[in-house]
Amino acid sequence: MKRATRILALALAIAALPLPVFAQDIGPALDPGAMTGWAGGAAVQHSLRHRGTRRAPPMSTSEASARAKCARRYTVASNLGMDHPATQHLFRLCRAAGYY
User: Fold this and answer.
1) Are 58 and 73 in contact (CB under 8 A)?
2) How far apart are CA 41 and CA 21, in angstroms?
3) Where are the domains of the chain?
4) pLDDT tens digit string along 20-65?
């Protein structure tokens, strides 16, 4: 008799789990719209925090510095050679900046 009672109690407990009582709406506690806004704000803060730590792209300094670097491009070419990737990159940047 004890075993039958246990099996019946277990069957009733399993049958009672999908009742609507267990599937209450959590709308007021966790509003999906508010959570989206919060997550979006956190992503923006993360982006702003890490944007300042990245290195600036090459030749993004002042005009005088760019002019000085482009004036030395032939010295760099004689030291490294025209086939060196750094030399080619420097010449491309100087050409784009208007230094021929």
Assistant:
1) no
2) 34
3) 63-97
4) 555 566 556 666 666 666 666 777 777 777 776 666 665 555 777 8
